[in-house]
Amino acid sequence: MKKILTICGGFSTEREISLRTGQAVARGISIAGYESWFLDTAFPKEILKADKNFKHIQKGKVINTPENILELSKQLVKFKPDKVFIGLHGGEGENGEIQALLQLLQIKYVGSDHGTSAMCMDKNISKVIAKSVRVPTAKWEFISEENYNKTALKKLLKPYGYPVVVKALAQGSSVGVSILQSEKDIDRTVKMMNDVKDTYFIEEYIKGRELSIPVIKGHAFHSIELIPNEGFYDYEHKYTPGVTTHVCPAKLDEKQVKTMNSYAEKIYKAIGCRDYARIDFILSESGKFYFLEINTLPGMTELSLVPESAKASGINFPELMDLLLNE
C-alpha cells in the first residue's frame, strides 16, 4: 500500500483554509485505499495517521523560524513518503518553495513543479502568458510602493473610471482584492494595501459572469458559475456555506463551452501545469471571455470548486484523489 503524506497549514494568510483542505484530502486518500498521513508544516515534528474520520486539532502558536524548514526537511527524509499531496495555499505552498524543497529531496508530489507554481502565483506573469497564447485578459498596470496612499492612488485610478479593481500580485482566496465602486472606497483600499504586504496592480473592471474551470491531467472539466448573494466572490463567499450560488455545469451554449475549454487548456499547457489547476474567467456582457488568474493548488474543502466539478462528471472525492495521485 502506497504511503501518501498530505502537507498543509503553513504560515500564509490562507493557513486556516489550507488546514481544511489538508483534512479533507487526507480523509479522501484514506478512503481511496492508500496509507494516509497528515502534516501541518508549522509543526513538522508531528506526522499524524489519517483515516476516513480524521480531524486535526490545532496546537499552539504558529511561529515561522529558520529552523522550521530544516526540521521539515529532516522529517520528510526520515518518513520517506511514496508521494506528497500539497494542501498548502498561498505563500510557500504556491510560490514554488515547497515544490523546490521536495524536488531537492527527490520526493514525488502531486501538482506543478516549482517554476510553474511561481509563475502561476504571480498574476502578472500568468496574464502575460495568457496574452501570448491569445487568451484575452483585462488591462492592468502596476502600482509602485510610493503610491500606496490616497492622493497618488486616486490619480492612478482616474483613467479607469469606476468600478475598478486593485489586486495583490501573489495572494490567493481573494485576499488582497478590492473592487472600488467610487472614490469613497480608496481609504479602505489603501489600508488593505498597507496591511497585506505585497505588490499591487490596477485591473480594468469587466462586468459579467464569474466562471471557474478545473483542468485535470490536461483536460478541461465542467465549468462552474459563481453567483454571490451580494458583493463579489471574496474570501467569505468562498468558504462560508450558503452565501454563494454555484451553477455546475455553468449554463453556457456549445460554442461558449468550446471556447472556454480551449482557453483553459491552452493556458494550462503554456504555463506548464501538471496534474491539475483551476482557472478563473469573466464572461463579459458582450459575450467575451477574459482570463483572471490560475491557481495550481486550488482548495479541496467541502465547498471547493474542483471536487464539485469532478462530481458533476461522476467522479467522487476519493476517486478524484486517486486520479490525481496516479501518473
Count of individual domains: 3
CATH topology of the largest domain: D-amino Acid Aminotransferase, Chain A, domain 1
Tell me what the CATH architecture of the largest domain is: 2-Layer Sandwich
Q: Quickly count the helices.
A: 12
CATH class of the largest domain: Alpha Beta
Which class do the helix and strand fractions yield?
alpha+beta
Low-confidence stretches: 233-239
Percent helix among the residues? Answer: 25-40%
What distance separates the N and C termini? Answer: 16 Å
Q: Beta-strand percentage?
A: 15-25%
- Mean pLDDT figure: 92
Biggest sheet features: 6 strands, antiparallel
The geometry reads as: globular
> Mind telling me the CATH superfamily name of the largest domain?
ATP-grasp fold, B domain
Describe this structure in words.
The chain has 327 residues and is α+β, with helices and mostly antiparallel strands. The chain folds into 3 domains: 3-110, Rossmann fold; 120-136 and 207-325, ATP-grasp fold, B domain (D-amino Acid Aminotransferase, Chain A, domain 1, 2-Layer Sandwich), CATH 3.30.470.20; 140-204, Dna Ligase, domain 1 (2-Layer Sandwich). Helix content is 36%, strand content 23%. The protein is built from 12 helices and 15 strands. It has helices at residues 15-31, 66-79, 91-94, 97-104, 114-121, 123-132, 150-157, 186-195, 235-239, 254-271, 305-312, 317-325, and strands spanning 3-8, 35-40, 47-50, 83-86, 109-110, 140-143, 164-168, 177-180, 200-204, 208-216, 219-220, 224-228, 244-247, 276-284, 289-295. The strands form 3 sheets. Strands 10, 11, 12, 13, 14 and 15 form a 6-stranded antiparallel sheet that branches. Helix 1 packs across helix 12 and helix 4 (97-104) runs antiparallel to helix 5 (114-121). The radius of gyration is 20 Å and the shape is globular.
